[in-house]
User: Fold these one by one.
Assistant:
Number 1:
Amino acid sequence: MDKVEQWRDTPLDEWKESVLKLAPQAEGFLQQINSHDDLSVASYHDVVMKKWHTNNVAILGDAAHALSPQLGQGVNLALVDASTLAQCLRELDLPEALTSYSERRKKHLAFYQRATRWATPFFQSDYRLLGTARDLSFPVMNSLPWARKQMTATMAGLKTGPFGILSPDNFV
Ligand SMILES: Cc1cc2nc3c(=O)[nH]c(=O)nc-3n(C[C@H](O)[C@H](O)[C@H](O)COP(=O)(O)OP(=O)(O)OC[C@H]3O[C@@H](n4cnc5c(N)ncnc54)[C@H](O)[C@@H]3O)c2cc1C
């Protein structure tokens, strides 16, 4: 992010050349880009709330818990929010339903908020050592059955803690 302004001041073709070196197959896409303004600059920040309701409002999705995209879970979390809220509203009157919604979402959201924050330096930072550690350790973890199961559950959006996995009841 601290190089965006500098990038805007350099000719677009220089940037295109550097992209082509990394990914020659991007040529078709690059031809469609004629100015710096054709590109969006993505920056991320975490939204952290203690509870996701007031007396008559429920907060869902990114508004409730925007996080960095390392684990690709934004949509999963938003869908589980919606499913959980619907379930609470079916079972309880409004004030209790909203309180219960926040309670039931706590563990699942806490796990993914911590995990994405923890994973960010390994995927998006200037620390090359962390990238190397990631590239060396992930294949090893993938070959260990327990670790592989945890990694798969994490990517499927099902984890509620280091050892916890979301119950299928959450998707009724
Ligand atoms: C670059 C990037 C890559 C991502 N990759 C993934 C991925 O691989 N997997 C994944 O699961 N998630 C991914 N996400 C996250 C995912 O897109 C979000 O978590 C998800 O879209 C959140 O859904 P939402 O409904 O809460 O919010 P949004 O999808 O942002 O929907 C909010 C809607 O409200 C509308 N709106 C805003 N203000 C108003 C207003 N005042 N009145 C009326 N409407 C309004 C907006 O136009 C928008 O349509 C990614 C996000 C980004 C930015």
Number 2:
Amino acid sequence: MDKPGKLIPVPTAETAEFWAGCRQGELRLQLCAACNKYQFPPQSFCRHCSSAELSWVAASGQGRVLSCTVVHWSPNPAYAAEVPYSLALIELDEGPRMLTNIVGVPPSEVRTGMQVAVVFEQCSPEITLPKFKPR
Ligand SMILES: [Zn+2]
């Protein structure tokens, strides 16, 4: 029986531009022309006002940790070599929230309120994951 591999995101029509940005080292968000709010994850209409006037813009890549935990064990053996690792909910300076990993610091040292900046980690030719490190 094959062991389960890592869970690699599959781009969709709505997320392809986000993943293209990550491959180029740019964190992209959708910006609504009608209400001037940013959104993530991507979707075909604005979650604030339902407008379809969305454009893609480069985000600052900076934010802060809202909540965090340390993962000590994974049911998926593909992640066994990576525990313990930090799993965190961050709020980007532009407003949207993102579930991600905090890297570059021991997981036990990640704190809520910590200021973080995006870093990119390639995991396949198509997918580069945005992760965050303290700034
Ligand atoms: Zn809107």
Number 3:
Amino acid sequence: MRRSLRFRLAVRMALAMTAALATMSIVGLVWARNFLDRELNANLLNVASIQASALTEQPSGAMEFHEWDLTPEEAAQVRELNRYAQVWDAGGESLLRTQYITRDLPLDTAALRTAAGMQLVMTEQTFQGMPIRSLYYPLERMGHLHAQHVLQVAAPLTGRNEMLRQLVWLLAGITVLSGAATFLGGWWLALRVVKPVHEITDQAESIRAGTLDHRIVADADSQEYESLVRVLNSMLERLASSFETQRRFTADASHELRSPLTVLKGEIELALRRDREKAEYRRVLESNLQEVNRLTRLAQDLLTLARSDAGVMQPRFQSTDMIALANTVLRRLNGRTDERRVSITLEGPEELTALVDPGLFEQLLWNLVDNAVKFSPHDGSVQVRIRQDGEGLRLQVADQGPGLGPDELPHVFDRFYRVDLARTSGEQGGTGLGLAIVRAIAEAHGGSVSAGQNSDRGALFTVAMPLVPGAQHPGGGTVADSGPMAAL
Ligand SMILES: Nc1ncnc2c1ncn2[C@@H]1O[C@H](COP(=O)(O)OP(=O)(O)OP(=O)(O)O)[C@@H](O)[C@H]1O
Ligand SMILES: [Mg+2]
């Protein structure tokens, strides 16, 4: 199970605090024990040397401890401060014992032997159930008279042990309490840290397709959250705008599809109302065919744009002779210009090869020249120029029609955008998708298209694209069959 960030943060802080305090406690305890031991050892040595010199003052060699005159009850009260002393001969026989104890101190024979060899020895033993530390002190240091005598001075370790035990409990308590307090603090801190995240999540969750205009307004008081909210909001902005574009596109598309269908339906219903002459049926069918053609083309255009939106317009790049391809398109279009006697000329080098999708490029050229012809006056001329421009290909289509005003220029590539149908020299207006498709195709080839004013009069469209597109999509080409010929 995935634990919450809040929990993990609090646990980690608590663990870090506990580990730090535990380490400090251990270091402190070791230091305290060493300190107490040094004190005790120094104390034992001090007592031993005083007792030794007092004990051996008698010229006769008789020994006697100089001790406080305490009753056994009083001695019991200072039990932990007591220093017990006993004198042994080298054979382990007790010669003298302090009055505070009724039994001999435990004898460490190995230590006794070492001390008899003129060395100080420190040992730990148990005396009447009480841990003690003993110092074996060679009395030979006081003169030859005591060559065989060893003084043992012992101190109980209970006080020192008790102090260390209490210190352990104290430090352990501090460590555990601090760990717990840190956990609570971390828990509270993490709540503050993750609160904006919860707020942002809740708000983002409540935004649906219908409320894409809502924005996240969480109380992001830190830089990180502020930039998160900003990024999310700008993403929402983009989503909302593309959602709105798609919504408008769908609405426009349905509207465009409905008009020819209404015409078709009306004509068919009218024709079926009574029996008619053969010629009349023919006329109706011909008119129907026109509407069906219009619908077919519209459906093709919509499909092309939908594929471009979905990112599946993958050009099938081929090395293509652009001049030959342009000539083919122009020849076909020339057939349509007869009645208005619009002439189309092609300017360009003898040969120019580029890596393009021929089907898509044909459609691009067709849409541009079709517009130019459509908006040309009687006896007007349309110029198509193709040339190599460095590493790129430049295609221009210029006409002598009404051109495009500054208000229209920014919108001509929008879907379903049409200026004024009255200007189309009486021709039936298009759907306003032609230039949107031109832009989609140019972009799919890694290029761009721009619209402007021709030098004297009319419109000028310029397509710029690389001769060899950087990114190729082998195996693509899903729209290769949707060329202009297929559409018309
Ligand atoms: N050469 C031109 N001269 C003047 N206006 C133009 C020219 N080309 C395009 N336009 C304007 O831009 C609009 C959009 O052109 P577009 O080719 O996208 O649509 P359309 O020609 O109306 O319809 P379709 O191409 O789908 O049949 C046109 O309706 C027209 O108003
Ligand atoms: Mg057009």
